[in-house]
DNA sequence: GTCTATAACCTGATAGAC
DNA sequence: GTCTATCAGGTTATAGAC
């Protein structure tokens, strides 16, 4: 979505296009500083428009933030709900869920930071119960089914689901901190390293569940 | 450390005491907004002193931030290095490491957010290679030993160590987001819930490693 | 729809009294 | 060592021209 924001100073006069470009740039800026730290000036400058456009199209900074969050939540819910978790055995269903979840992050690396900021700075105010349940329920259901069938070890499905998310996203949020563990110059977000993280995380999640 | 900052408007005239109180209050404020989002005014007001004290004792906001981070890093390194990971078998060493790690967070719940902010906002600038290696190396070594002895499954010790940290801290960073998964009114940071997270996380980490 | 100019406010940092 | 007063720069948001 916002992986490469196009810089253009051309006066487009296309409302929907401008709104979309603002959303992309805002997502990146909110991922860096959250609602509190984001600067409307920086968002506007990045796509070659003036601050006024933000207030014209989204009312205020908070309105823009809500729009960004809603889009991000919708994306997450959509791709997780695509997966048919009931017709395959728990182990494979979990593999599919975690894989799809990490694929989403790889496409849009702003997501983990945005949701972290939302929890810390805004106490989940703009997140909402329905969004959380839509995202976590598939994981919880697969774990419950796995325990019942004896394929998974006994555990608390809620805690374990939350920890699974942690395994998936921590790497993306802390890559600048932990980069020193790898040889100097290694780019933890390169295609190879991302693929390696995906593979290791999927295997570790499955292993953490098996009886 | 800063779990309960004492509010006191008494003019103490004790430099070390004041510095300590500023550090505690600053840690809490930096945990909420990072170096960028923290407000010196808020830090000062919380302990009943004026902003000037911050600049007198720490030079500038960045100096205060560095002092907070150094103290937090020292705490982490100290408690992890206390554990003798070589004289017990890998599974038990990992159990001890993860347990101690989460115990630190339970005592000072600001730590996970501070290190997250450091990675996202400052790109790990104030973290440093030595700190990261001191914290992660024990985990990596235990995993390597476990793989060699055949007790642990084959995996990449670096990626898996990073994911383990994610399992430990995600719960604390996202408790405001995921609280809706539990019955309304449940306090995810209550003593019982913290103990439950600790127990579930330790078991899940060990399970994620076993062959 | 988009821009320029500006209002109203906030924040880090300094100077100087006590 | 601590406080009060204040400045300079930055930030959200609005008004009005085009």
Task: Describe what this molecule looks like in 3D.
The structure is a homodimer of 211-residue chains. Helix content of chain A is 71%, strand content 0%. By secondary structure, the first copy, chain A, is mainly alpha-helical. Chain A has a domain at 63-209: Tetracycline Repressor, domain 2 (Orthogonal Bundle). Chain A is globular. The model of chain A is unreliable at 1-9 (pLDDT under 50). Chains A and B meet through helix 1, helix 6, helix 7, helix 8 and helix 9 of A and helix 1, helix 6, helix 7, helix 8 and helix 9 of B. Chain B binds a DNA duplex (18 and 18 nucleotides) through residues 11-15, 18, 39-41, 49-57, 60-61.
List the helices and strands and how they pair.
The structure is a homodimer of 211-residue chains.
Chain A: H1 15-37, H2 40-46, H3 51-58, H4 61-81, H5 90-107, H6 111-121, H7 129-149, H8 157-173, H9 175-178, H10 191-209
Helix pairs in contact in A: 1-2, 1-3, 1-4, 1-6, 3-4, 4-5, 4-7, 5-7, 5-8, 5-10, 7-8, 8-10
The structure holds a DNA duplex (18 and 18 nucleotides).
Mean pLDDT of chain A: 94
Tally of helical runs of chain A = 10
Question: Which secondary-structure class do the elements of chain A indicate?
Answer: mainly alpha
Sheet of most strands of chain A: none
Q: Superfamily at the CATH H level of the domain at 63-209 in chain A?
A: Tetracycline Repressor, domain 2
Using the 3D structure, state the CATH architecture of the domain at 63-209 in chain A.
Orthogonal Bundle
Question: Can you give the helix content of chain A as a percent range?
Answer: over 70%
- Shape estimate of chain A: globular
The most extensive interface, with participating residues per chain, is: A-B, 59 and 59 residues
Identify low-pLDDT runs of chain A.
Answer: 1-9
Using only CA atoms, what is the Rg of chain A?
A: 19 Å
DSSP strand count of chain A: 0
Strand fraction of chain A: under 5%
CATH C-level category of the domain at 63-209 in chain A: Mainly Alpha
The H-and-E topology of chain A, N to C, reads as: HHHHHHHHHH
Oligomer: homodimer
